[in-house]
UniProtKB/TrEMBL annotation:
It comes from Scomber scombrus (Atlantic mackerel). One of its GO terms (cellular component) is extracellular space. This is Acid sphingomyelinase-like phosphodiesterase. Its cofactor is Zn(2+). GO terms for biological process: sphingomyelin catabolic process. SUPFAM superfamilies: Metallo-dependent phosphatases. Belongs to the acid sphingomyelinase family.
Amino acid sequence: MSTVKLLLSCLLFKGVLALSGNFWHITDLHLDPSYKLTDNPEQVCNSSGNRPAAKAGIYGDYACDSPWQLINSSVYAMKDILPDPDFIVWTGDDTPHVPNEQLGEEKVLHIVRNITHIISHVFPNSKVYSALGNHDYHPKSQFPGGPDYMYDQIADMWQDWLDPESQITFKRGGYYTEKLLNRTGFRMLVLNTNLYYDQNKQTQDIDDPAGQFSWADQILTEAANNKEKVYIIGHVPPGFFEKKRSKPWFMSKFNEKYLELVQKHNSVILGQFFGHHHTDAFRMFYDSDDTPISTMFLSPGVTPWKTSLPGVVDGANNPGIRVFEYDTQTLLVKDVVTYYLNLTHANAAKERWEKEYRLTESFRVSDASPASMHQVLERMAKDRCYLQKYYEFNSVSYDLKECDSDCRVDHVCSAREVDFKKYDSCLKTEASASAIYGGLLPVLSVAVSLVLANR
Ligand SMILES: *[C@@H]1O[C@H](CO)[C@@H](O)[C@H](O)[C@H]1NC(C)=O
Ligand SMILES: *[C@@H]1O[C@H](CO)[C@@H](O)[C@H](O)[C@H]1NC(C)=O
Ligand SMILES: *[C@@H]1O[C@H](CO)[C@@H](O)[C@H](O)[C@H]1NC(C)=O
Ligand SMILES: *[C@@H]1O[C@H](CO)[C@@H](O)[C@H](O)[C@H]1NC(C)=O
Ligand SMILES: *[C@@H]1O[C@H](CO)[C@@H](O)[C@H](O)[C@H]1NC(C)=O
Ligand SMILES: [Zn+2]
Ligand SMILES: [Zn+2]
């Protein structure tokens, strides 16, 4: 009897294990080959743009992009933490934030090749799905909507990771699709959303740069017909930056088209994984009845580089890398575990990558499904402590100051609304909610202290 029971529970246990898979997501490594330790803080790295790198150490400085030591450390940390992932998602941005004059096609290719090498060297047997970032082109962000030298060169560089058919579409516009791990019923869609970036002058007058939208629409339609489940990865996300009010990345017409694409095909899209922000955030997608239908996860960057975007106060972060746990039968995202390097500590004492948090534990949800992420969002909007936790994770535990009411509105509305108009009206609604909330708290605390004083 007990043997049967034991056998049964072992079988069940095995079944559960078989359903669960995991993969790495890394993004925004931004190697700065000029990084060096010198006595003049303004000359530590070219990516600081003459801001002083006051706390420079061997693993980097918050004013700078990554020294080689940090890139090396992050890739070996992946190997140490989870040596055999099902696959790796790498969403681009390899070169430093320096003026175009300091780069060039060959320098950009050299850096992309350098990072490609370390990833394939440390993970020789892992499938890597690799998307281009806006910094993986010269001049930066100017990806053309058709065949190009850089697409050709990078397709060749990544040939071990690309199927023959992927090579063809990559050379046409930097995008591709493949069966996920070559398994029937599962698909990866790798987009080149740099074509939609508002900094890109090559594509602004084109309706469908490189034919990527119509291609993706067709792939997703076929996926539905073939009962496939799909993950989408890319670099520049639609919607708004949470650290600067009303700052979108996509051109308006492309933002609309992207949103339509996800709404139309949401039944086959099980997750979207992007980078570019360097922060840890997520974006919700809803259908016309306001039902949550999809989530885009924005993973933190490896570079700690403090953004120089005007209007952002102290926009640096600790280096972060992340594991997604998913159901291998349904592709449902079950959990997200973020690991980080406390850069200050690494420079001062020792290099230690540690778990920062596990989504289901820290935010008390059952999984990372769109319904659960919607719960996270609604709780952030209402609960100050919960919001504060989200805020600290947003910069990978770098910025621990209090998230005030403007900050609340920025985080809530950027996560809730990818659509430009809806984001605007969210700002208005939430600002007045903040006013009530902010106004009520002092009143409440005065009332409480009066009650207490009268006892
Ligand atoms: C850093 O900038 C200096 C001057 O601006 C330039 O001469 C040098 O080549 C740059 N270093 C790298 C590695 O690009
Ligand atoms: C890269 O990291 C590995 C593992 O920590 C270490 O053994 C190696 O010396 C590092 N290489 C460089 C160039 O820092
Ligand atoms: C990448 O470049 C760094 C210097 O910036 C060099 O030390 C390292 O060996 C290179 N690694 C690979 C794998 O090419
Ligand atoms: C993918 O699967 C097909 C058929 O099942 C097989 O012919 C092909 O070699 C596989 N490709 C890879 C890269 O494993
Ligand atoms: C990072 O390390 C520094 C120096 O050891 C420490 O003061 C700081 O509290 C650490 N930050 C976090 C989030 O643990
Ligand atoms: Zn970046
Ligand atoms: Zn970027």
